[in-house]
Amino acid sequence: MIQTTKTLLAATLCCVFAAGLLSTPAQAEDSNYKIAVVDMQNVLAKYDKRKEKYEDLQREVDTLQAGIEKMADRIEAAKKDYDERKDSLDDDQLAKLETTIKNDYADYQNELQKSQREIDTMEERVLKEVLKDIQSAIEKIAEGGNYHLILNKGRGPRGAVLFAAPRIDITSKILLELNK
What is the pLDDT of residue 31? Predict the structure, then answer.
């Protein structure tokens, strides 16, 4: 209880100190700061190039998936064949079939992991390219509009901005710049 009270008192003092610092007017040549927010989630969702890149990525994923599904089908067929024939085969033949199925399954697992790494790499490359474009558009709008600060208008309690007046939201300007 005492520790909680001390922690609460320390936090309160820090808040009071910080509020005092923040309430003092900033000394600068230009006291009219221009601040804006951008809804990055919205920009990512509506950026045409991102949509196109992810459609291309999905086609690649579908191609890789088709190959993996063929391998899975072969393994299932081999298992079915094994189950149907296991009573009529001797131990050596059964062992060979089991080994073949196990090896095919190991190959399947390896191919699945390889494909996942390939997909992750492609997605990371797309995301880096898209974020670079977005950053460039934000910088262009910021410089052209003489903005001093642009924040991400994240949603929810983890967002950087808990409230922003709609008049300082420049998300539409960023999307216009990106999608032109």
Answer: 63
